[in-house]
Specification:
2 domains, 8 helices, 2 strands, two-stranded antiparallel ribbon, mainly alpha
């Protein structure tokens, strides 16, 4: 993981993803100065998700997609787009849940919980079945967090039964898309070490 995180960018996609990471860090300061502290907190919460693709050694194109999605999702909250743009909330739930499902699947694969990627020999039907289930679990956790925020922090957080079910439905659809990606594409950066002590060909470090 350390080698991947410190590895200099080599492609346009990797440079672009690193630029978005830098914008994410700068955005925290901008939100802290010109917006309310809650907005700065939202921007700061996005930082771990921005760093994960680089830590895991993911392909530049997917790294860029993750960073763009995370930043759009975070700043949509800051600018209140979820309330003011019709359908924006559902679209972001679909895309964000799909991206987070892929990240979760990669972590589960590399920690030997369950193989869900092609480079670890998973059959295509495995991610097609498990990814939507992961997505629904992640959606449920997110809705719980929203409810806790509404119940204990601010009643400005929009929480209704219809909103919750709609968000979970679109999150599940994002999981279906994530399953297709996991079943058909390799997401590891070429010729790099992937996270948790593995190489991109799926073998454990030091194994012969």
């Amino acid at each position: 993981m350390k080698e991947d995180f410190l590895r200099p960018p080599r492609s346009l996609e990797e440079w672009s993803a690193d630029a978005l990471r830098a914008l994410g860090v700068i955005g925290v300061g901008v939100a802290l100065i010109w917006f309310v502290p809650t907005d700065a907190g939202i921007a700061a919460l996005a930082l771990p998700a921005l760093m994960l693709p680089r830590i895991l050694g993911l392909r530049g194109s997917f790294d860029l997609a993750v960073c763009a999605t995370v930043l759009v999702a975070a700043w949509s909250n800051v600018f209140d787009l979820y309330r003011t743009v019709a359908g924006w909330d559902l679209l972001l739930h679909l895309v964000c849940t799909g991206v987070l499902t892929i990240i979760t699947a990669l972590i589960l694969t590399r920690t030997d919980v369950v193989a869900m990627t092609r480079d670890r020999g998973a059959r295509p039907r495995t991610p097609l079945v498990l990814a939507p289930l992961l997505a629904l679990a992640l959606s449920a956790m997110w809705e719980m967090v929203e409810w806790l925020g509404w119940a204990f922090l601010s009643d400005d957080i929009f929480v209704t039964y219809q909103d919750t079910i709609g968000d979970m439905v679109f999150g599940g659809l994002g999981g279906v898309a994530a399953g297709v990606v996991l079943a058909t594409a390799s997401l590891n950066r070429p010729h790099s070490r992937s996270g948790f002590g593995e190489t991109t060909n799926g073998s454990r470090a030091g194994r012969t």
